[in-house]
Predict the 3D structure of the following.
Amino acid sequence: MTLSRKTNLAENNGQTADDASKTSSEDENLKEALLNLVPGALNESPKPVNEMSDRIEYLGVPLEKAENSDSPYVPNREQYEDYINDEYALSLQKKIAIAFSQDEPILIEGGTSIGKTTTVKKMCSELGYEVHYVNLNGATDVEDLMGRYIPNPHKKDASDPEYLFADGKVTSGLRKEEGKKKVIILDEYNSAAPNIVIRLHEVLDALERDGDVVLSEDASEVIGTRKSQTKVIALTNPPGKGFFGREPLDPAQIRRWIYKKEPTELPQKTFDHSSDVLFGLTDASVSVADDSYTSYPEQSLSPEQLSDIPGIKGILQKYKEFHRAAKNMVKNRSIAADQPQVFTYDDRMEPRRVRDFILKFYNGDITETFQYALKYYYVDKLESDIDRQKLLELIRHVTAPRKRNSKRRDINSASENSPIQDQMRVAEKVLRNDFIGPQAIKNAFDIDVPEHKIPNIPFSRNELKKAKKLGQFLVLRTDQDNHGINLTIEYMENLMKDKDSSLISNKTRWFESEDFYMKETPKLEWALVSKKVLPGTESQDYLAQTKALVNFVRNKVFENKPLPDSYEEAVKKLEPGMTITSDTMAYMKIQELTRQLPVEVLYDLIVYKANSSDGLSFINKKWIWTRGVSDNRNPVVIGPNSINGINISNNRRIDQSHGALGALFSRTV
């Protein structure tokens, strides 16, 4: 097949085909760069800590690297090479990353040796952030934080000043320096003397509004602050519980912080994994569930756009009810009764933080985004699993009502009559270049699919995210052209000839009298299709391939979920020891649910290749068994692409196998 996006791009940019061919190596470099720059690009599984040239994503939450990391205050990265990114450590890094991305001060309360300080410094070493660390134990005074006059070590003659002002750790962390980002670590915060806490209140209040800190310790020097440049994190042990000298903080202090209650002891699972790593019994990598990642949109909302979110009024009303209930539960000690650190859910701070979270993290699903915000700001203040479950049960009811004709809607909340444009916009945002919609059909066939005929997308946003991870693309199939002519293989071949392209390369046209060539057409529907032959389906006969497809459906597509009824019923018919005959194989329901017809393979190939720089790579090297059947009762096989097009064969019996003959996966429900 000779359709090429490279050629089209060359023509659009006034290049010759020769010029375009010179970019092939550049395209490969671009692909390699995408793997580093875009999480999940080219269907690579996302990394829990995904480092790129300008930022690092911690379970999906990005933090920009410092432009200037040339400083002795930036921790040496080599010191943290043995840091183990286990499940707990990754969760802690994500919590810190969210606070830093929101420019909010965060207070983490947890036991000794769970990794609070180490985790912060490790992140700073990766990001190139300066660390300005101060321990607020009983021996620390305000001057240690803000600075003091010291004898001038550079004094050489009488004209030189006798004393110089030396910044304290907080002051040095507040000073703005071009290209630098700084983190002020306030360790043992609940051991601080009252006068220190009062001074820190002034600093936090100034940072909140990007205001000025008056340095009374140095002739009232005024220091301008910028919360996007200076991050503040306080670390504490739980008051009481065997930690000497730790006193509970008063509510006026707690409300200024994003307060996170971490465990007093390292989780047993983390301890076991770390021990196994240290003794060489396993590697440091851990598997991370998909729902551990936070979807981070490329562009934040503006406050003016909040009212455009569908269901925002209804879900806000439910949030108000939730907030009042959660606040009363704390007040009545039905939750957090055993926590010595008293806190409340502040009537002003919590709604503002939730609002800002939605502005930053809204992913098209207001219910999902809102509920995650409540888990982050409300549930994470609790220590007991029982208490956390109580709030989670309340959060489950904070949902947006389903509305019609919304300006902003995602697939999950779309009703039957919702605008298809909104559904496609969400799908394209999730899948990026692997979304093949109406414009792609226009590019490939010059066919316009009327918007009122486009069916609803039958897959949820989470299903699309899973499909992206599994290396699939979403394609809109249509059955007719603009004049009502059926899109058979025969007609598509003629369309390609009109475009000076060859579709089929066979010299012997054995299929020209076959129904699959003359009569079969795609249905008007959406389909998820794998881009490569599935592992485990090569060198297998038709029955073994079918069983491999079932395993893929059970263990990958619907991982940790019950199979939908349609799949469950189809799988039950694959009894142990059964055989598939040429008369029954094409009509088994499981084939319809997992394989393409020949016309669907060719259609999908044409529209994808016309709109993607990589085309479908499987077609260059592999043969695939379709669910189509030729007149000789053998399955129709689609084969490797050549300069003149692809090949169609029927010379493989269902009991035969070949190393280059595999299966694609396709689903429409």
Q: What stands out?
A: The chain is about 35% helix and 15% strand.
